[in-house]
Every structure is written in C-alpha cells, then in structure tokens.
Amino acid sequence: MKPIKNRSLLIFILGLLSAIGPFSIDMYLPGFPTIAASLHTTVDKVSYSLSSFFIGICVGQLLCGPLLDRFGRKKPLLIGLVLYIIASVACSLSRSVESLVAFRFLQAVGGCVGMVAPNAIVRDVFPVHENAKVFSLLILILGVSPILAPTVGSYVVAHLGWQVVFIILAIVATVISLMVVKWLPESKAADPSYSLKPASILQGYRQVLRERQFTTYALSGAIASAGLFAYLAGSPFVFMQLYGVSEQQYGLIFAFIAAGLIGCSQLNNRVLRKFNSAQILRFVLLSQSLVGFLLIVGIAAGLLGLYGIIALMLLFLSCQGFTFPNAAALAMAPFSKGAGSASALMGAIQMIFGALASALVGVFFNGTAVPMAAIMAFCAISGFIILRAGHSRMELAASEDEIEHQTMEMIEKF
C-alpha cells in the first residue's frame, strides 16, 4: 500500500466502521419495554434479538474474514454494508418478535464486516508497535456510540417510535458507505491465490489457532469482554424495571458508565509509554476480577443500592478500555499475512462468548440483578485465569525452544 496521506481521516473512517456494531446494540436498548409492548411480548424475549445479533456477528465474521483476504478490503466491506442497510429497514417493519430476531441476525451478518475490516486494515497499514495505540484511538471514536446512542435512542423511542431507530441506523450506514467509497484506500490487493474452498478456509483458521500468542490473548480478551455483553443484555431490566429509572435516565446512566470505558481507552496510550501491552492486560484483568467479585457479593447480599451498582459497574467496564486495545494488538501481532482471517476469528470468538453471556442473562432471569452480576464476575475471573495459563504455556514453549536451540548448537560443535 502507498504511504498514508491522511492518517487522521483513515482512523476516523475505521472508527466509524467499528462503531456500526455498537450503535446497532446501544441505540435500541432503551426501547426494550416499548418494543415488548408493541410486539405483544416480554422484555426477556426481546433480549433474544440482542443474542441473535451477537450470533449473526459471529457467523458473519467467519464468512467475511476469508473474503477480505481473497478480494481485498473494500469490496466485501461495501457488500456487507448494503446488506446491513436492507436488514435495518426490515427490522423497522417487523410485526413480531420472531421476525425482529431474524432480521437482527441478518443485520449483524452485514454489519460485522465493519468490525473485521478495521482490525485487518490497521494490521495492514500501521507498524506492529503502533497497533495498540491505533486501537485506542478507534475506541475513542467507538466510544461515541455508548454515550450518544442510548440517549438518542431513548428520545427517538419516546417521541418517534422504536421503528425509527432502525431507519436512523440505515441512514448512518449509508453515509459511512459513501465515505468508504470516496476516501478509504484499499490496503490490500485482491489475492487470487487465496482459496475460498471450505477445506482451505478451515485450514487457514487452524493455522491461526496454532499460534499460542493468538489463542492466549484472543481467548482471554474475549471471555473478559463477555461481561460487557452480559451488562448490555441485563441493564435495561435492572435499571428501568428493577430500579424504576426512565428511558432518558437509563440513557444517561449508560452514557456515564461508557465514559469510563472511553476515558480509560485514551489513558491506555499514556500507560503504554511505561508498560507494555502484556503487563497492562495482566494487571487490568486482575483488577476487573476483583471488582466483579465485589459486585456479585454486594448484590447477592443486598448491600448495594442503585448508586452502588452504578459505581461498581463503572469500575468494571472501565477496565475494558484497557483490555480491548492491548488484547487485540497482542493477538494480531503475529500475522503479517492472513490478517483478515485472524481478525475474523478473533471477533468471532468474542461474539461467541458475548452471545452466550447475553443469552445466559435471559436463561437465568429471576427478577433480580444477580444473574447479570454473576455472569459479569464469572467472565472477568475466567479471562484472568486463561491469561495466566496461556502465559505459562508460552513461557514453557519458549524455554523448550531455547533448550532445543542450545542442544543443536552443541551437536554442531561436535
């Protein structure tokens, strides 16, 4: 690729693409009760449209990753955006919760390319040592979603109807598509040698999974991030129905908590001047585990009121501002070739655990905040355990390689 002429514009467009998925999630959350009433169903059944969205992102990423490596970045990106726009309009026309769940799946399949392509393009364009900083900048743009989307969504739902939320999403995606056509450079030429046969695609994913560094950081980061999805699925009920806040108040609470995540993502750039990504990730996942433990104990024991829950959720989700950029940079670092497939697999792993976490909130629903808090805590603790186990495996492998290297040197001397 030619040298970057406008680095800021490139990062801005990549950030907008990355924000499509979060906007699609956050903007309609305040409308859960209204959607349930309109479609003659319950809030917990409406939450399945969130789970179907996560599943669609997972499936879609596995499909579009190889397409990005085969046809370059722009063509699959634009096709995905067109599908997203069509599915968004279809969501607005839904007359049953079942059709909404189905169209949300298709919306995710199209929109997921906006999550995969930016990661691959960052790996294509920027030096490896800058990737964590670039991902932090993407989160700054991405962070507009959880601040603006619920607030705008609550206003739209209250005054225009929940269907208009999906029309707005379609319009936003159309504008982004035009920006991609006009200003996004192609970062990787099409590769006719890249096979799209199922066996070849699976073999490519197997090669990615054989990389210990990828599996360690992609898996630990994904499981820890699943706590965020549990929060997304459970927070509408916890705040609006359990604690009785209005749709507008929920939007403000959501934005306040999201501000912590965004602030920490930018603080990450400063912290990277003194510590490397692996050190930061290890400390943050330990901290998040401790906060998650306090959250579930406090809720189960009845020690936390509304403000206590908001405070601990702020601390818990602020950790994600450090987790994502560092875990993503470390997972993608080994791949100068096949970055599209690696990015897709990383995203798919994240969505698998995200969909599972959000679905479990509904499965264990008992009219309290305990299921949401328990799943959030479990995700954080599990992510930290997997990170430590992965580090041990990598250190052991490095020691074995060093011993093998020394042995070969001794043999050559004799």
From TrEMBL:
| Keyword line | Cell membrane, Membrane, Transmembrane, Transmembrane helix, Transport
- CDD domains tied to this protein: MFS_MdfA_MDR_like
What is the protein's membrane topology class?
Answer: Multi-pass membrane protein
Top-level taxon of origin:
Bacteria
For this protein, the record's SUPFAM superfamilies field holds: MFS general substrate transporter
Which ranges carry the Major facilitator superfamily (MFS) profile domain? 10-391
Q: Quote the subcellular location field of this record.
A: Cell membrane
Q: InterPro entries, per this entry?
A: Efflux_drug-R_Bcr/CmlA (IPR004812), MFS (IPR011701), MFS_dom (IPR020846), MFS_trans_sf (IPR036259)
Q: Ribonucleoprotein: is it a keyword of this entry?
A: no
Which is a Pfam family this sequence falls into? MFS_1
A GO cellular-component term linked to this record: plasma membrane
A biological process from GO: xenobiotic detoxification by transmembrane export across the plasma membrane
What transmembrane ranges does the database entry give?
Answer: 48-68, 77-95, 101-122, 134-158, 164-184, 214-238, 250-268, 280-303, 309-332, 344-364, 370-387
Query: For this protein, what is any one GO molecular function term?
Result: xenobiotic transmembrane transporter activity
Q: Which family does it belong to?
A: Belongs to the major facilitator superfamily. Bcr/CmlA family.
Task: Please give the PANTHER family that the UniProt record associates with this protein.
Answer: MAJOR FACILITATOR SUPERFAMILY, POLYAMINE TRANSPORTER 2-RELATED
Q: What protein am I looking at? A: MFS transporter, DHA1 family, bicyclomycin/chloramphenicol resistance protein
